[in-house]
Automatic annotation (TrEMBL):
<feature type="region of interest" description="Disordered">
    <location>
        <begin position="126"/>
        <end position="145"/>
    </location>
</feature>
<dbReference type="Pfam" id="PF01391">
    <property type="entry name" value="Collagen"/>
</dbReference>
<feature type="region of interest" description="Disordered">
    <location>
        <begin position="212"/>
        <end position="249"/>
    </location>
</feature>
<protein>
    <submittedName>
        <fullName>Collagen triple helix repeat-containing protein</fullName>
    </submittedName>
</protein>
<feature type="region of interest" description="Disordered">
    <location>
        <begin position="33"/>
        <end position="94"/>
    </location>
</feature>
<feature type="compositionally biased region" description="Low complexity">
    <location>
        <begin position="53"/>
        <end position="65"/>
    </location>
</feature>
<feature type="compositionally biased region" description="Basic and acidic residues">
    <location>
        <begin position="228"/>
        <end position="249"/>
    </location>
</feature>
<keyword id="KW-0176">Collagen</keyword>
<feature type="compositionally biased region" description="Basic and acidic residues">
    <location>
        <begin position="33"/>
        <end position="52"/>
    </location>
</feature>
<dbReference type="GO" id="GO:0005615">
    <property type="term" value="C:extracellular space"/>
</dbReference>
<dbReference type="InterPro" id="IPR050149">
    <property type="entry name" value="Collagen_superfamily"/>
</dbReference>
<dbReference type="InterPro" id="IPR008160">
    <property type="entry name" value="Collagen"/>
</dbReference>
<feature type="compositionally biased region" description="Basic and acidic residues">
    <location>
        <begin position="128"/>
        <end position="143"/>
    </location>
</feature>
<feature type="compositionally biased region" description="Basic and acidic residues">
    <location>
        <begin position="83"/>
        <end position="94"/>
    </location>
</feature>
<feature type="compositionally biased region" description="Basic and acidic residues">
    <location>
        <begin position="67"/>
        <end position="76"/>
    </location>
</feature>
<dbReference type="GO" id="GO:0031012">
    <property type="term" value="C:extracellular matrix"/>
</dbReference>
<feature type="compositionally biased region" description="Basic and acidic residues">
    <location>
        <begin position="212"/>
        <end position="221"/>
    </location>
</feature>
Amino acid sequence: MAFDGKSFGREVVGVVKEYVSDALAPVIARLEAIEKRHPEKGDRGEKGDPGERGPSGADGAPGAPGEKGEKGDPGERGPAGEPGKDGADGKDGADGVGVAGAVIDRGGNLVLTLTDGTTRELGLVVGRDGEKGDPGKDGRDGADGLGFDDLEVEHDGLRTITFRFAKGDRVKEFPFTLPVVLDRGVYKSGDAYSAGDGVTWGGSFWIAQKDTADKPGEGDGWRLAVKKGRDGRDGSAKAEKQSDPVRFK
């Protein structure tokens, strides 16, 4: 008789299933019992009453100070308070307000300055009639003054500026000499120079210290400002070969 592998396999599988089913039967029964003891979750119950408050805990460490807030708007003005009581009477002259000074202003009014810093104007001061004075002499009309409308400014081209006020036959002049150095070029013998004039002489530069006609270097009328430098040595000329000029295209 030939061996049938398929039939043999089915028989083996059936035996295994039967054995496993018998072995797992107690486990399955246990799980079913457990499910019966744990029914499905029911609806949520009502909230219970709150419990009593527990004791207060210990104070914690103080926190760091917060940043300074912005300045708020000013509040409304409160109602006026009740009038205060009358003060006690002051001592005679000791605590009262006195006179610190007295002047008569340009209008002839007497003005008092009190010790509390306030001033009081007491009106026009009228004195007693004095003795009659001697009659005055006949006067004459004074001449009109000179103003800026009569002013002319002149400049001599050097260092002098003249303010001249002229009105009719009246003339007043106010010359001003500026303390500046003027370059008068090369010194010329016989010319007069003023203090502050500068000239070139002998290769040096001189400044006049006062009005003078002396030659620079003679007397105390001049001061040496820039001294002449030493002459350089004569150089020797060397012939150099000229190179061809560079041409640009």
